[in-house]
Amino acid sequence: MIKNIVFDMGGVLINFDAQRYTARFVPDPADYELIRRELFRSVEWISMDRGSITDGEAVASVCRRLPQRLHQAVRDILDNWHRDIPPLDGVYALVEELKGKGYGIYLLSNTCSRFHSFRENIPALRFFDGEFISADCHLVKPEPGIYLRFLEQFRLRPEECVFIDDVPLNIEAAIRCGFSGIVYHNDPARLRRELRELGVEADNL
Questions:
Q1: How many domains is the chain partitioned into structurally?
Q2: pLDDT confidence tier of residue 202, bands split at 50, 70 and 90
Q3: CATH number of the domain where residue 176 is located
Q4: Predicted confidence band of residue 136 (pLDDT cuts 50, 70, 90)
Q5: How far is it, in rounded angstroms, from Cα 107 to Cα 134?
Q6: If DSSP codes are grouped into helix, strand and coil, which group holds residue 73?
Q7: Is residue 144 part of a domain?
Q8: Which end of the chain is less crowded, N or C, counting CB atoms within 10 A of the terminal residue's CB?
Q9: Is the peptide bond before 67 cis (omega within 30 degrees of 0)?
Q10: Which of 61, 83, 105 is the endpoint of a domain?
């Protein structure tokens, strides 16, 4: 029986939009792909999520691969992306309903240590019983260790948890660790149906 609902953050609770952040700070659209590849799809981005390098170290490393004209944009993006993280439609209401029904509500997210300074900007987190982020444990999804450490920290049984993430690889890894899993496609109605199929109850499911 499912007792705990575990949510990812970006792409589930909030709209993390690399293209929007890039357009805000990079004047020439011809440079957008360069920023996408060298910043958002970089080893440095993953290392920040792992908590193994600082923002400053990431900027210095990324900028070595970019022309001088883009160095300030990299700094501006890293300093400001978290100020623009609107909630995704429908998920706040779902979290509130599930909490009201007595389910445990948890966060399991790949994100940097800066999370602790912007978490108050994510309204749904007021309903959460626990938050577990990659930078704090130096593990990242889909490594099995992050799921096992999450379960250990909150003393949860995997068979009583369903994990919701927008990345199929992360869901596959959670399932291998004993969780139920749902890939989120920014479709609250579908998510409600899939939760109901797992036996999760809430007033409007």
A1: 2
A2: low
A3: 3.40.50.1000
A4: very high
A5: 11
A6: helix
A7: yes
A8: N
A9: no
A10: 83
pLDDT digits (tens, 9 = 90+) for 32-79: 999 999 999 999 999 999 999 999 999 999 999 999 999 999 999 999
CA 60 to chain centre: 24
**Domain end among 35, 53, 83:** 83
Domain interval for residue 107: 4-15+86-197
184 shares a domain with 135: yes
| Residue 33 CA, distance from chain mean position | 22
Tell me the CB-side half-sphere exposure of residue 21, using CA atoms within 13 A: 22
CA distance linking residue 54 with residue 130, whole number of Å: 24
Average pLDDT (190-194) is 95
Closest-CA residue to 147 (of 108, 116, 120):
108
Question: How far apart are the C-alpha atoms of 182 and 28, rounded to whole Å?
Answer: 38
Dihedral sign of CA atoms 23, 26, 29, 30 in order: negative
Tell me the three state secondary structure of residue 140: coil
| pTM for this prediction | 0.94
C-alpha torsion sign, points 144, 150, 155, 161 = negative
**Which residues have C-beta within 8 Å of that of residue 179, sequence separation ≥ 6?**
6, 147, 158, 159, 161, 162, 163
